[in-house]
Write a structure and sequence with these properties.
With 130 residues, the chain is mostly helical. The protein has four helices and two strands; from the N terminus they run H-H-H-E-E-H. It has one domain. The radius of gyration is 23 Å and the shape is flat.
């Protein structure tokens, strides 16, 4: 487990059960794409522990919404309209604080590298060559 009941309760000021913590961790693992045994870095485990605690607190009042929410950007009825954030596939399912914590993970950062030119030689043109 990324965190225990006591730590999660102290972070969120809510009484969180072990079952809820387990379900919250499974959602966080799905979101980040790694299970508990794959994360070895202590800093990443700390952030994942916080994300799990925040997710458990989020699911405490609306766990049914987490599991039953439709995958729609906008939905409405009569004068009521609900729209989720653009570009955020996790918006109704993952707690906003959990998303913020997961952005701090080392393996969630960009994996791009910057490269220079293959050849750094300068090309000198001379009028004598023509």
């Amino acid at each position: 487990m990324f965190t225990d009941r006591e730590t999660a309760s102290s972070l969120t000021n809510r009484e969180i059960t072990s079952d809820l913590l387990f379900r919250a961790q499974s959602i966080i693992e799905t979101y980040v794409g790694k299970v508990d045994v794959e994360v070895l870095d202590s800093r990443d485990r700390t952030w994942l522990g916080r994300a799990t605690a925040y997710q458990a607190a989020y699911m405490m009042d609306n766990e049914d919404i987490v599991y039953e929410q439709i995958a729609a950007k906008t939905t409405g009825q009569n004068d009521s309209l609900i729209s989720f954030k653009d570009g955020d596939n996790a918006s109704p399912w993952i707690a906003p604080l959990a998303v913020m914590a997961c952005k701090r993970l080392t393996f969630m950062n960009s994996r791009s590298i910057t490269t220079g030119k293959v050849s750094q030689r300068r090309k000198l043109y001379s009028w004598r060559r023509w």
